[in-house]
Amino acid sequence: MPSFLHRFYENITRKKTYDTESLHTSQLRRCLTVFDLTILGIGSTLGTGTYILTGQVARETAGPSVILSFLIAAIASILAGVCYAEFGTRAPRAGSAYTYTYVSVGEIMAFIIGWNMILEYVIGAASTARALSAYFDSLINFAMKDYFTVHFPLHSETFAPHADLFAMALCLIITVLLIVGIKESAVLNNIFTFINLSVIALVVVVGLTKVHGHNWRISLEEIQNLTNVTYPVGKGGFFPFGIEGTLAGAATCFYAFVGFDLVATTGEESKNPQRAIPMSICLTLVVPYYLLNPDAVFPEAFRYAQLPAFKYIIGAGALTGIFSSLLGSLLPLPRVLYAIAADGLIFRFISWIHPRLQTPIIATILGGIAAALMALMFDLRKLVEMMSIGTLLAYSLVSISVLFLRYQPVDDPLLRSITPVSGPIYKELFRPSQTHPTIYSARITKYLIGLLVINGFIVCAIQIFASHRLAAKESGTVIAFTIFTITEILLVTAIARQPKSEKPSYFELTFHETPLVPYVPILSVLINTYLILKLSPATWVRFGVWMVLGFLIYGFYGFWHSSQRFINDTQRLLSGSTSSLISS
């Protein structure tokens, strides 16, 4: 039995390898410049997260403290981003986090990240299409919403109140556009992003002329006098829903920062979603948070501020910005599907490339249809929360993978063969006998990282439980929190004491190095874990269904049809034949 488990572990952690010929070859059409990719990244970060999420989180979750929600989400994004950058430059081939993980860590971790990236882009496209539909609807006085509610209602709490045929059509139109020509799509995106940036500057400049500091100091008496509001409005002030509301808002606001990975996987990293913070400051000072319209927040805010002409100017700019974000979500989706299918981890026919267009047509069509169906049935809030949990988990796995890589032995037989001196295990934990990573020290570090993640999850869960149940003063909660926190500190200390590799694992190119390892990756994992736990239980259920589906596909298909499995088996057979010849 132990030998079976050992073989199973070796199979699910097998690493993808490249030969010299395939390292720089691709069947896909290479026509996008660095400028195109940068504008795609900017456009993808300045869409739904800026124009829709700001209003939703401000009205329903955080109030004016949405500013801090965006700031916390920005910190989490930066921590994940520096890990992401090192991960990419350590791998021998440009591409997504899925490819990085497969080359550096192993197959099962790569599949989990890739499967979550599919979720990220599908839901990103669906939520963006919903946002674009809502903004267009606001310019025609919500005629579509009224019509769809009457003729296409969805009588289920799981789905949106009504089907959104317009959002579904948008996803299908962009899908056709991507099939016909990626370069043409990028040119259109460049124009729309320029308009979008101009409108954002206009919102901030004009909005600052209508700010009222009182909107950040709304009293409880004013809240209690509201008679026409049927939804929770908190208790007023800067934190109407408390610190817990601010943190819960941060978990959702993380959505606004996910677009950076489109740039990070292809070239220089560019983070522009910090524009959401001045936008949210302007918004919550212009309009009381409980009067915000979450479906079309900026046009309606300027109407409230008695600037109706700007409603249409801002609305037009928002449409171009959200369109760019939709394009930025649907563009990388087929590439991720293509990469995973080409490796045999999902159905291989998905990786078919059209010989003339040089685009993964089947992957593009499937991704577009999936996004269209999600946009048809789910409302924006459910989509954003589900996307956030998948993205937070994927970025946590990237940070964990960076830790694994840093403590792996370099490809030097002399160093790999070094074994630690015999002695008590606790000495190897806090006073390692070697200055370079060995197979033994790498194994110790993996165990420590696993315990760290589990223990960190427990610490975050205890803190959230205590705040929700007001049990912070109960002795049992305090003792448990103290014990697990001390354990976490000891685990971090033990990991930091282990010998690290400062050399790329695969080739001698200069690479971006994550600073303060292991502290930055560990902090990234802990913040992401806390934000994940702040999401609603229903989001966890939907995400659990998605992951179960993914593991079923991998277990019944990907594990057996993996291209790397065939390569490893072939190498094993050749190695066995060579050994037989030598012995004879």
TrEMBL record:
Its main location: membrane. GO terms for cellular component: plasma membrane. Residues 514-562 form the Cationic amino acid transporter C-terminal domain. It is found in: Membrane. It comes from the Eukaryota. It is a multi-pass membrane protein. Pfam families: AA_permease_2 (PF13520), AA_permease_C (PF13906). The keyword Membrane applies. GO terms for biological process: L-arginine import across plasma membrane. GO terms for molecular function: L-arginine transmembrane transporter activity; L-lysine transmembrane transporter activity; L-ornithine transmembrane transporter activity. Keywords: Membrane, Transmembrane, Transmembrane helix. The chain crosses the membrane at residues 34-54, 66-85, 97-118, 159-180, 187-208, 238-264, 276-292, 312-331, 360-380, 387-407, 447-466, 478-496, 516-533, 540-560. This is Cationic amino acid transporter C-terminal domain-containing protein. It comes from Rotaria magnacalcarata.
